[in-house]
Amino acid sequence: MIPKFLIEKLEGQYGEELTRKIIEGYSVERKVTFRVNTLKSNRNNVEKVLNENGIEYKKVPFYENAFIIENVRENEIHNLDIYKNGEIYMQSLSSMLPPIILEPKEDTDILDMTAAPGGKTTEIAALVENKARITAVEMNKIRAEKLKYNLEKQGATCVYVMEQDARRIDDFFSFDEILLDAPCSGSGTININDSKLEKTFTKELIRKSVKSQTLLLRKAINILKKGSQLVYSTCSILKEENEEIIENILKTNKLEIVNIDFKGIEELPKLPTKIEGTLCVMPNEEYEGFFVAKLKKK
Question: Long-range contact list for 257-261, CB < 8 A, 24+ apart?
Fold first, then answer.
C-alpha cells in the first residue's frame, strides 16, 4: 500500500495523470537487466551464450553493453557461467546512467562517494578499461566487504576501497571526477506489494535523506578540482531530494549545470524536472525511477 502522503506529494509535483502512470510503474514486475563486464568479456560472447540457452533479449538505446531479458527471471541468469565468472553484472538500467553521464576519463582520479555494492564502481572501471585511479567509499563494514567481493569478481583492479563516512573525507584529497549516487528515500523504486511500506517509507526517511544528501554534496564540492565535473544521482523522484538540493547548491555560485545529453536519451521514459539539463526517469517495467544532474565546479 502506497502511503497517502506520498501520493499527495507526487500529485503536487507531477499532477494526477503522471502520478497515475508512476503508480502503474510501481505496480509492474520489472524486467531483468544486466550489462556486459567489458573487463572480462564482450557483447558478442554474451549474445552467443544467451542464444545457446534460448534466452530472449533486446538491446538498450543508450548503452550497447546493456541487455533487457524478455523471457526468464534473474535466478536463471545466475545459473549461467557468464554470471558466475563475472562476465556480466546484474544492474538496473537506470543505475547504469550515472557512470555514462559522468563520462570518466583514463588516467584521472575518480571518486565514487557511496559505492557499495559496486555496480556503478565496476561500470566506471570498465568504461576506463582499468586505466584510472578510482577511490570507492563505503562506511558500512559489511557493505564494504560486498563491494570488495564484487570488485574482485568483476576484475576491477584500478579501485581502492576507503572504509569511511564519505561526509568526512579529508579536504586534503582532490578528484577530477566525482560520482555521488546519494542515499535516498527510494521513492523511484517502491515495491507496491511490500506489506511494511507504510511503516518504512516515512516523512522522516525523506527528511534524513535530504540532510545526508546536502552534506555529501557539499563535501563533493570541496574535494572536486576546479573546472571538473560531478554527477549527482538518486533513485528518488521527489523534488526535495533532487531539484531542491541542486537549486540550493547552485545558490553558492560554486557550480553550474552541465546539460545532460547522450545517444538514446530521447527514448527514456522521462518525468519533467524543474531544472533544465537534468534528467528524471519515470518508473516502468524496464526502468526504476531515477534522477541525475551533472555539475561543473567554476
Answer: 257/293, 257/294, 257/295, 257/296, 258/229, 258/294, 258/295, 258/296, 259/294, 260/101, 260/292, 260/293, 260/294
**Residues shown for the chain:** 298
Query: What CATH number does residue 225 fall under?
Result: 3.40.50.150
pLDDT tens digits for range 129-187: 999 999 999 999 999 999 999 999 999 999 999 999 999 999 999 999 999 999 999 99
- Indicate which CATH number applies to the domain containing 72: 3.30.70.1170
Residue corresponding to grid cell 506489506: 195
Closest CA to 35 of 80, 66, 74, 75: 66
Indicate the pLDDT class of residue 194, thresholds 50, 70 and 90. confident
| Helix, strand, coil fractions of the chain, as percent rounded to 5 | 40, 20, 40
- What is the C-alpha separation between 201 and 215, in angstroms, rounded? 22
Q: Which residues are catalytic?
A: 235
Same-domain pairing of 146 and 250: yes
